[in-house]
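Quick one:
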Amino acid sequence: MTNTVEITEAAAFHVQKMMTHNEEEGSFLRVSVKGGGCTGLTYALGFTQEKEDDDISYIAHGVPVVVKEEDAAVLVGTKVDYKESLMGGGFTIDNPNAIANCGCGTSFRTAKKAGAPADCE
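Output:
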């Protein structure tokens, strides 16, 4: 079985650093999709202690990852990476299912799920 969301080695390294810094060792990285943003859907990355019954779970470069089954169709093939530049570093999300992205870069929509657009903040 392939992982729903690919977490690169660079991203996993920074997630592990964040887990240590935030005292979240033993937590899962939850990758999810929520309604909102000017295009309709937004990504959410966060830590959770709980794995729910409808979660798909796997290990990516030592990081335990959970994704809700209902989000999997929107996220399948998505790649989470961490990039460094002269302006600093940050996580990037490349979703091959996104057919539109907003100008502020925080929301998207897919052919199968439009979400609930809202004003960008």
